[in-house]
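Inputs:
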Amino acid sequence: MPIAHEFDYVKPGTIEEAIGILAEHGDGAQILAGGTDVVAQLRDDAITPEIVVDIKGIDGLGDIRLAGDRLFIGPLVTFTDVIESELIRESFPLFHEMAVKVASKGIRNRATVVGNICSAVPSCDAGPVLLVYDAQVLLLGPEGERTVPIDEWFVGPKKTDLRQCELVVGLEISSSARAFGGSYVKLGRYRGEDLAQASVAVLVSPDYEYRVAFGAVGPTPVRARELEAEIRNEEPSDEMLETARKAIPRETSPITDIRATAEYRAHMLEVMLERGIRAAVARLNGGGPEYGTRHI
Amino acid sequence: MKHSITLNVNGEEWDVDVAPNDTLLEVLRERVGIKSPKVGCERGDCGACTVILDGKTVRSCLVLAVEADGSGVLTVEGLSKEGPNELQQAFIDRNSFQCGFCAPGVVLAVSELLATNTSPTEDEVKEAIAGNLCRCTGYTPIVEAVMDVVEKDRT
C-alpha cells in the first residue's frame, strides 16, 4: 500500500537550518532519521506532517565519542553503529548487549537509538538501558539548549518531553558507569522483529549500588528506585533476591495485549530480574556470561 | 513537489523524479523495473523487501526514495548478472526455497553477513536472517545452503 498522505521533504545541511524549519512549521514538521518508525507511521496515517525534515545531511550527528568524562551518542547513531563501536563494547558493554537484541540486522542498520526513545513505545529497548545509565537527553530549539534527564524524558506511551520545534542533538552517559557490571534481559516471542514482551536492565556499582529499570510493563520504561533502595549494598542471596522480586509489583503495571498476558509478564519479570541481577554482579566481578548473551 | 534523484541500481545509473511519499521499494519495482524486492508486510517485519543500500541491508519499504538520492542499491539481479552466484547456486542445490517470496531478501541478508564474516557459525547465520520470514521451508535448508558455501570456502 503506497503512503497516501502527501508532504514536502527537506534535507537541511546544518542544525541551525533544521531548527529554523522546525520553528517555521511547528506541529506540521516531522523529523526523520532512520525512518523505521516514521515511514511506518506515515503509511498508517498515524502521523500526517506537512513537511518531513531529514536530518541525515547534518555533519557530526552520527558521532559516538568521549567528551570529557561523558560518552556522547549523536542522533544519527544506529544500533549497528553501537554494535560496531569498540568504545561502547569496551566501556559501556551493557549498551552493546541491548543493541544486539534490537529487531533484526536490516532494522538495526537504519534505526537510531535517539529515534527509539523519540518514538517512546513502552517496549523500546534503549529506554531501560539509558535509564540505568542515567543518560541525559540534549536538546536544541529556537530558545536554545536544554538538557533533560532520561528519567523525566518518557511521559506516556509514545509521549516524551520533546517540545515543539526542538531537536534531540544527542545523548550523554557518564563514564563513571565504566566500572559497573550490567545486564539487559529481553523477553520476546522470537528472534527477529519482535518487540519486547518485558525487559529488565540492571547496572551494579563496585559497592553494590544497584540501578534497575523495566520496559514493556507500564506506560513508559521505568526506573525502579524503591526496589533499588531495598537491595542496596547487598550481594545477591536468596533473601536479597526475594526482596527484589517482592518489590516488582510496586514498580510495574503490566497489561494484557497482543504480545503477552499481564500474568505472564508479571511472572517472567521475577525470573528475568533474578537472572539480570546475577549476571550483572558476576560481570562486575570479572565473570559471568559474555555481553550480548540472551539470558532467557 | 517532485524531487529529481539519482540511484545507482546494480551498477546502472538511474535518474528518476519521485514524490516525497514514494518509497524506495515502489520506485525500484515500478520505475526501475527491478522486481526481486517483494511487497510483503510493508512495516519492516518480514524482510521480503530487503535491498542492500550503500553496503547495508535495509527494508526498502521503510526508506523514502528521496532519502536514497545518490546512493547505490544492490538487489539479487545485481548478484546474478552472469548467472547464479555461488550462494544462489547453493540455495538451488539444497532446494532452499519453495514459493520463493522470501528468497531475494534472504540471499541479500546472507550476502551482507558473508561480506564481513567469511566463516560464520550456524548461530551467526540464523541471527543474520532472523528478520527474513520464510513460511515454507522451516529455514533448515536455507541454513544448510549457507553452511555449504561457508564450508566450501573454508577448504
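The longest strand of chain B covers residues 3-9. Flag for discussion at group meeting.
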